[in-house]
Amino acid sequence: MFRYYVWLALRSLRRNPALTLLMVLAIGLGIGASMTMLTLFRTMSGDPIPQKSSQLFVPVIDNWGPDAHSKSSEPEQDQLNYVDAMALMRAHQATRQAAMYQVGFALTPADPQLQPFQVPARATYADFFEMFDVPFEYGNAWGAADDEGRSEVVVISRKLNDKLFGGANSVGNTINLDQHDYRIVGVLDHWAPEPRVYDVISGTFDEVEDVFLPFTLAIDRHMTTWGNNNCYDSRLPGWDGHLQSECIWIQFWAELPDAAQAQRYRSFLDNYAAEQQRSGRFHWAPLTRLHNSREWMVVEKVVPDESRILVLVSFGFLFVCQVNAVGLMLAKFMGRAAETGVRRALGANRRAVFLQCLVESGVIGLAGGLLGLALTALGLLGVRALLSEDLARMAHLDAGNVVIALLLAVVATVLAGLYPTWRAMQVQPAWQLKAN
Amino acid sequence: MLKMTHLAKVYRTEVVETYALRDFSLHVKEGEFVAVTGPSGSGKTTFLNVAGLLETPTGGHYHLDGVDVSQLSDDARSRIRNEKIGFIFQAFNLIPDLNVFDNIDVPLRYRRMGGAERKKRIGESLERVGLSARARHYPAELSGGQQQRVAIARALAGSPRLLLADEPTGNLDTQMARGVMELLEGIHREGATIVMVTHDPELAVRAQRNVHIIDGQVVDLTEEPRFHGVHAAAHAQSAA
User: Fold this and answer.
1) Domains in chain A, number
2) CB atoms within 10 A of CB A151
3) Is A339 an interface residue toward B (CB < 8 Å)?
4) Alpha carbon of A286 to those of A266, A269, B136: distances in Å?
5) Contacts of B40 in chain A (CB under 8 A)
6) Which terminus of chain A has a smaller tally of CB atoms within 10 A, N or C?
7) Host domain of residue A15
8) ipTM
9) The pTM is what?
């Protein structure tokens, strides 16, 4: 019977094209608006590493004291200073751990035809790659020995490898960064975590850097950060002064596979802060936090509150559109009460009438969903024109969004069609046949 | 086949009760052709609606094909309507968007019949009413008489035990009406039980038996059936 109902629904839609167009348009507009906002929201709030998000943690240590807190008693810091980052690295209390910060270089290509250009880079530790399940096209990450030995090695992105080496295996080759040669040990495969989970402070939705190099080497070479650097009080001059200051500029991640290890790490952080208090560095009670990556996205407001409000408003618009669709469907279903009366007389029970109308609602919803998808694509084009390049890059319809749009359209329309369907079901055949 | 005993149908509003049928008793035997007559507002249509299970009686008993159908659920009444009753309406009540074939297909679909069986039955019904060539035509492309023949084909396709006709020639001119009546008589001769509501005495007289309704009650029940056609010949022979 389902196929029969679909066939009847298609005939019914063709019967009154103007009414059908109005209904599909109402639903399509609602779906288009809500899906545009939802697509952006989903991309911004997505979990780029769901398999490990509960195992990757960011430690926070209050190294500024309560005077620096604005309102809440929560620590304001979202990065570590060099002293604390190195203390955590040395303590090695996590299965894997990596301090990191963003740097940048002027890259001079070996090919004289190519002009030097700037490349963003990340100074980090070997564990970074395994922690974030970074895929490699060629070669591997450097090893712990390279971290220790401050080796002049780099891992480069696929994009940079394509640009410099035409996509060939460049492992073993060198690249020149700020007049120093670095040996390539690995080339990343396509990797575009959205948001860029490992550093949501300086460029939440930026592309992954083109070059990765050992943190220790970057420090040795006095590479200043290209990212965020926050200082609360005065600092000593020079590179060493910077390293010894309370300025926070280093992101730190620890991989803690289970709850017990996370709890031990919390205790370790508390003990570390207490030790800093005892040594006279902190003049306040120890205040530390340990957030897993999903919590960290919330703490850092990766998804701004405005986005949530926009999604709510767009769904409010969808609701208004569906209310319109209810009215139109009511007019449509009640307009064929005589036909419903005939069908009832010929043996259709109320359930059959209900299902016929419901399937018709679903077909209308599907048509509205398809139109909504087209409008969503248009909406995202508009968003790309308005937003930053990085956000625009993310604003695309993937298969999941297409499925959500169609499901949303069908479910919302079927729900909207429940009242008209119920009214159609109540048609008294005797009255309709007499009236006819 | 159809047995109504002390049946009542009351329409109630907040201020008034209207008896459409009261103490209504009627027995139609299998194979009978009964004409129900009466003035406007006498309750003919209400009787037909109750007989066709489109409305439920408010009192009394109604047995159809030996089963008490007075107070069945909507689902059960729909099933019986679909399987045992064929309707022929004054206004034909064909679905304008469906062609002849698909109109006749409607009751068979609700019986969840297989495609091949439906096609066979539709073909036979159309042949029976002489409209095989019009299967792909839409109702608007047919004359009134042809539309009523399609309605009859639709009623016959499900092989119903009872045919209920409500003023089947009311919307037709004399020539078309004659054709439809001859068709109904032919169907009756093949053994169908037919109850026809009409206000036309000339049509009523062609039925085996007349039932007259006034103010919702049967006032004149002719017990002795008048036979015609093959039945009349048999009756004459047995009388001799």
Assistant:
1) 2
2) 18
3) yes
4) 12, 9, 87
5) none
6) N
7) 2-45+305-435
8) 0.85
9) 0.67
